[in-house]
Specification:
14% of the residues are buried. The protein has helices spanning 11-15, 49-81, 144-161, 182-195; strands at 26-34, 40-48, 88-95, 99-100, 116-126, 129-137, 167-172, 198-203. It is 33% helix and 28% strand. The protein has 211 residues and is α/β, with parallel strands linked by helices.
């Protein structure tokens, strides 16, 4: 996986570099980058095949590490999903894109002042079944406060659906403003004490976990 073993140590060199037919041939390629304004932009480049392959080779190690983490976490998620019971449940949570309220016969200026609703989604595996839950709110902030409130509502509902639940394993993406921050873990201890259940939180690999 990391090109450190004897099997794949020279794989990039053998499969890519050694198969270049014309190293001086000029080609064009694009790379995603971050602008000075902090926005993701697609940048066009032009150069020789060798230059392009060199850039690619510098990104392979990081990419392979990312793929390894993604596969391991996905495997762990699938293992837990297949071993849920009426006492041990799995839940995946995330915010959906805000829902814009559109009126059928709205005037032109209404296009720029549409109201929105936030959608906090959750999918539960447990008790030999699955449950799809969503919290709709006119508070469109996606922060530690709204997450805490939504989690409390979700767990309350789950104890109604699965009264015998004792352990809840939570998965989400790694959004720092919503989930991956110290306030969440403090709140987990409070919720675990309040609902008398065991709570744990896991994060999918970066840019994964959208269900």
């Amino acid at each position: 996986m990391f090109s450190n073993c004897s099997i794949c140590a020279d794989k990039f060199k053998n499969e890519i570099e050694n198969k270049i037919i014309n190293p001086t041939s000029l080609i064009k390629w694009t790379l995603w980058s971050t602008s000075q304004q902090g926005r993701a932009v697609n940048v066009d480049y032009e150069g020789s095949v060798v230059e392009c392959v060199k850039i690619l080779s510098n990104k392979v190690e990081q990419f392979l590490f990312h793929v390894f983490i993604k596969r391991q976490q996905s495997s762990f998620f699938e293992t837990i999903k297949s071993n849920t019971t009426n006492k041990k449940c799995l839940i995946q949570v995330d915010y959906s894109e805000n829902y814009a309220i559109i009126e059928q016969n709205e005037i032109q200026s209404a296009h720029w002042s549409r109201k929105q609703l936030s959608l906090f989604t959750a999918y539960v595996w447990g008790n030999g079944s699955t449950y799809s839950l969503v919290i709709v709110s006119n508070n469109v902030a996606h922060n530690k406060y709204t997450v805490a409130t939504c989690l409390e509502r979700i767990i309350t509902r789950m104890q109604i659906l699965i009264p015998s639940i004792e352990e809840l394993i939570i998965f989400s993406d790694g959004s720092a403003s919503q989930f991956k921050q110290r306030f969440l873990f403090k709140n987990l201890s409070i919720l675990a004490d309040k609902f008398k259940i065991s709570l744990s939180w896991n994060f999918f690999a970066s840019n994964h976990g959208k269900g």
